Please model this.
Amino acid sequence: MDLRDSMRDLILIVVMVLSTLLLVLRLWQDITIAVGATLMMLSLGGLFVSLGMKIRSLEENIVARERTMRVNLEEISSSLNRKYDRTVEQLGEIVDGMTRRMYR
Model:
């Protein structure tokens, strides 16, 4: 999937450079303008690819952090459940002890 996305980006960059060359075709007498426009489109395409890679990296980081948070929440939930059960048992023992004292 990543290779397919990269190929699509590269094809779009090539199309962008070729269209730039077609736009400046009649300006071939001034080679500086044609080369400058081509380099500008190549750098713009490189910028788009770079941004795409950074966005993918951010998405992967978000997924990893979400997974970590989910695991941590599950651990906290189980810890709270254990503490709740212990507290209920202690309260039950206290109530049993008080009822025994009342009937003595």
